[in-house]
Design a protein that fits this description.
The complex is a heterodimer of chains A (420) and B (430).
Chain A (H helix, E strand, L loop, with lengths): L1 E6 L2 E6 L6 E11 L4 H12 L9 H10 L4 E9 L2 E11 L9 H14 L11 H16 L5 H13 L13 H6 L2 H14 L1 E7 L4 H12 L22 E6 L5 E8 L9 H12 L5 H9 L6 E6 L4 E8 L4 H16 L5 H17 L4 H14 L5 H9 L3 H9 L2 E9 L3
Parallel strand pairs in A: 2-6, 7-11
Antiparallel strand pairs in A: 1-2, 3-5, 3-6, 4-5, 8-10, 8-11, 9-10
Helix pairs in contact in A: 1-4, 1-7, 3-8, 9-12, 9-15, 10-11, 11-15, 12-14
Chain B lengths: L5 E6 L4 E7 L5 E6 L6 E7 L7 E3 L6 E3 L4 H8 L2 E2 L2 E2 H8 L2 E6 L4 E7 L3 H13 L5 H19 L2 H13 L13 H4 L4 H11 L5 E7 L3 H11 L24 E6 L5 E7 L7 H19 L4 H9 L7 E6 L4 E8 L3 H18 L3 H17 L4 H13 L7 H4 L5 H9 L6 E8 L2
Parallel strand pairs in B: 3-11, 12-16
Antiparallel strand pairs in B: 1-2, 2-3, 4-10, 4-11, 5-6, 7-8, 9-10, 13-15, 13-16, 14-15
Helix pairs in contact in B: 1-7, 2-3, 3-8, 9-12, 9-15, 11-15
Classes of the chains: A alpha+beta (420), B alpha+beta (430).
Chain lengths: 420, 430
């Protein structure tokens, strides 16, 4: 990765990828996660995606994107620990595939237009129709979380685990806050977003680096950026009592989400051991959860765990029969205790280390995965190359895994069950 | 060392080439070298999916009927052998392994960055050592039962299968690939052996490898591993007659969703395509959908602006030898209105035609979509398997974009008739 500093708080990172047939440009604007800002952050990229000064109507903008070989222009809002990230991503085939048109270079110029020269019908603020329509779309999107019961269980678990805490803020904002936003307020906030965020821009694949650097320099030329960098909050605190929550819905299969807290976050010396622990616990087909909850007891089709090193969070998810709640929960906790007491083999350790280092090496074959890896390192401050990360993983010992497991404490259990 | 016959397919613009070897057992081995890539993928494709529920066993005159979900059940169980579970073996090498079953195919694969030869041996071994017992079948019934239940709770999945159930009268595409909890309860270990012995043979399977490998060394090594593959044979499969019209034009279910979900499908009775005509039809079906309803279409922009549709709106064209259909999906407060507007747009396009400029632009987009797939070793390996089973040369795809004309598209759009369409909805519970 090669980094070019544009100004304080604004950097471009070039990631190699000569062998790919497409190129990728991503703008990440990051800010401290807080309400009601979260709602504004979630709404802005949707409004920017509707039109820009040069292509004010969505149909013009979409047609131009289609002219660039069906280029994609998508957006996302993400949560990374205590940071909220507004992300806009642009991709199409690389210039060398269509040298007459140079679709990727043109797309970079369009990206600049879309983000920095939005459509302002009265020269003062965003188009009211666009803002009102995207408010409705965003509200409908938030409401639709209930459609996917697995995701819903996860979302409810997080809410319960981090009530009134930064980590619990929903990255898409809140319906009440969104309803109140006006086009004028949103535009005022948008100016703040451009001038007071930490901006990391990624360019992957074959591209004209000089040209893209110039485009981005020009974009920021007249903006006075005062960025506060990334926020790295400690994990918080362990709760004394475990919370058990259940809800009912008209479902066929119960969705069990179990949340654990750990003080091990990205800058902790056990961070890499935690990654190995998670793979061993429920992150692979040789994991304790897969082999016991699924294969041995056939309680579930999926039974897995995930580790979020930004927050110090481990989540287990399984889909089970309603009356298998007790036995499944007991089994999951038993598997965790087994790891804590060192009851796992050297083969299991090396299998987990191989699985993680293998996926690290494979990351180089995907521009978006590589970008995500680099960005994660920048946010957490770890900023490590893939090779160094592989070395750290390889150095994890049995005792490290036990020590990491011992920091994993049950916090909240959420169960979505049937109506009856 | 054997000297296998081979041929090379290539494309200069894409800068890609694929070697096709004929192994000693009669199976084809596709190798697509990808210099500079870290990941390697090997995928074993079997031309057997959830559709083939009635077939003749070797040496028998009568057809055998099997319950829904056997192909998928077999996919789960093939990972086990007398010497242990294949996942446990892959765990020792660090490979990422998986498998999937569709209506027409089953595929088993791994990706890895290291120990490719060892992994290829694990994969080819698992394909050649079936091990089914009443005990391991019973255990899997619990796991797959939960997989089926998971999909029953998924509105996006339900709205799609409800659509297929309305579209088809008899073809098993109307039922879930995994079957139902009831149908899988009838599966026995003998049934799994019957299906394995019938379909897992050299003429019905193909191995596709993609990554930074030497094609000749890899092909020779793979050939040496394929010693227990059953010889090629033709399998007789039978289906009930499938009428051209749809079974039901409207299908609806209530679930706890925040707003209605819809799938609109057009059954397409132009089946039996093969070789280059298959590519032709695949491009044509996709182009027609995108031209009428894609993001730069009048339809999309008008109805997005009015709020009738949102950005969950999506298009898909499915083409197999046995069936094909178009699919328009999304969320809307008023699915019936979306359906009416879709029909209106089809009628108007059939009448007014398509401007050449729009048509060419759409073909360029599809061409770019095709090119993009070569970024990924798994997708490339999989695309070779599809090309093999449909007997086409994948590198002919680019040429096909120059062959398709506006009048082909208009002809296709005229075949999209209301009586061949289904509206499937999931409505919120009060």
């Amino acid at each position: 990765m090669q980094t070019v500093n544009i100004k304080n708080g604004v950097n471009i990172h070039f990631i190699e990828g000569e062998r790919f047939k497409t190129s990728l440009l991503t703008f990440n604007f990051s800010r401290p996660l807080q309400n009601p800002e979260a709602s504004y952050n979630a709404l802005i990229p949707a409004v920017l995606r509707r039109g820009c000064n040069r292509y004010p109507k969505s149909s013009y903008l979409n047609t131009y994107l289609d002219d660039l070989y069906g280029a994609s222009a998508s957006y996302a809002v993400k949560k990374k620990g205590a940071n909220q990230v507004v992300s806009m991503r642009f991709s199409t085939i690389c210039d060398s595939m269509a040298p007459d048109l140079k679709p990727f270079s043109k797309l970079c110029a369009l990206a600049k237009q879309m983000i920095f020269n939005p459509y302002l019908p009265n020269d003062e603020f965003f188009d009211t129709d666009y803002v009102e329509r995207e408010k409705i779309n965003l509200i409908q999107f938030i409401e639709s979380v209930i459609n996917d019961k697995k995701e819903y269980a996860k979302k409810r678990l997080i809410e319960e685990m981090y009530k009134d805490e930064t980590f619990g803020i929903f990255e898409f904002g809140s319906i009440d806050d969104i309803k109140k936003i006006t086009a004028k307020e949103l535009y005022e906030y948008y100016k703040k977003l451009l001038s007071s965020s930490t901006v990391d821009i990624f360019v992957s694949g074959k591209c004209d680096k000089e040209y893209i650097t110039d485009v981005i320099k020009e974009a920021f030329e007249e903006i006075e950026v005062s960025s506060s960098g990334y926020t790295n909050k400690p994990f918080g605190k362990y709760n004394e009592d475990v919370k058990y929550i259940s809800e009912t819905s008209d479902i066929t299969q119960g969705k069990l989400s179990i949340g654990f807290k750990t003080e091990v976050t990205a800058n902790h010396n056990l961070y890499f051991a935690m990654a190995v622990f998670n793979n061993l616990f429920g992150g692979s087909p040789h994991s304790k959860l897969f082999l016991n909850v699924r294969e041995k007891l056939s309680l579930a089709y999926y039974a897995n765990s995930g580790y979020d090193g930004h927050r110090g969070l481990v989540i287990v998810n399984c889909g089970i029969e309603f009356d298998k709640y007790e036995i499944t929960l007991k089994e999951v906790l038993k598997q965790l205790d087994d790891i804590k007491s060192g009851s796992f083999t050297d083969e299991e350790i090396s299998a987990s280390i191989l699985a993680i280092t293998g996926s690290h090496n494979a990351a180089k074959d995907s521009m978006s995965v590589m970008e995500e890896f680099c960005f994660g390192g920048i946010v957490s401050g770890l900023n490590m190359s893939l090779e160094d990360s592989v070395k750290k993983i390889n150095a994890v010992t049995r005792q490290d895994i036990i020590d990491a497991a011992k920091t994993v404490v049950l916090d909240t259990v959420f169960f979505l069950k049937g109506d009856e | 060392m054997s000297n296998m016959d081979y041929l090379i397919l290539e494309n200069k613009l894409l800068n890609e080439e694929t070697y096709i070897f004929k192994s000693d057992c009669g199976m084809s081995i596709y190798i697509t070298p990808k210099p500079g890539f870290y990941k390697k993928c090997a995928m074993f494709g079997v031309k057997y999916g959830s559709l083939k529920n009635r077939f003749k066993k070797e040496g028998e005159k009568e057809f055998t009927e099997i319950p829904d979900g056997v192909a998928h059940f077999l996919e789960h169980k093939l990972f086990e052998s007398e010497t242990g579970d294949a996942f446990a073996k892959y765990a020792k090498t660090g490979a990422n392994a998986n498998a999937f079953t569709s209506f027409t195919n089953t595929a088993y694969y791994f990706t890895c960055t290291d120990k490719f030869e060892e992994n290829l041996k694990i994969l080819t071994d698992l394909m050649q050592t079936p091990y089914f017992t009443p005990q391991n079948v019973q255990k899997e019934q619990g796991i797959i039962g939960q997989e089926i239940n998971m999909y029953l709770d998924h509105p996006g999945w339900r709205v799609y299968f409800n659509l297929l159930d309305g579209m088809y009268h008899t073809l098993p595409v109307k039922r879930d690939i995994a079957g139902s909890v009831e149908s899988i309860s009838k599966i026995t270990s003998q049934m799994l052996y019957d299906c394995y012995d019938t379909f897992y043979n050299a003429s019905n399977m193909v191995l596709s490898i993609c990554g930074d490998v030497d094609p000749f060394e890899t092909a020779n090594y793979a050939n040496s591993l394929l010693t227990d593959i059953k010889p090629a044979k033709q399998v007789e499969v039978s289906y009930d007659e499938e009428p051209e019209n749809v079974l039901k034009q409207k299908v609806s279910q209530k679930l706890s969703v925040s707003m209605p979900l819809f799938n609109i499908g057009f059954k397409d009775n132009l089946n039996g395509f093969n070789s280059d005509t298959f590519i032709f039809k695949e491009i044509l079906g996709n182009a027609c959908l995108e031209i009428m309803f894609g993001r730069s279409s009048d339809f999309y922009n008008k109805h997005y602006e009015s709020g009738l549709i949102n950005d969950s709106f999506d298009l898909e064209y499915t083409l197999e030898a046995e069936f094909s259909h178009t699919l328009i999906s999304g969320e809307s407060e008023n699915p019936k209105k979306v359906y009416e507007e879709v029909l209106k747009t089809i009628e108007e396009t059939a009448k007014n035609g398509i401007p050449e400029r729009i048509f060419k632009r759409q073909l360029n987009i599809l061409k770019a979509d095709f090119i993009k797939e070569f970024n990924n070793v798994e997708t490339t390996a999989r695309n070779m398997i599809d090309a093999h089973f449909h007997s086409y040369n994948i590198y002919n795809t680019l040429k096909m974009f120059d062959v398709i004309t506006v009048s082909d598209a208009i002809k296709y759009i005229r075949s999209m008739k209301k009586e061949n369409s289904v509206l499937s909805t999931i409505m919120p519970k009060e």
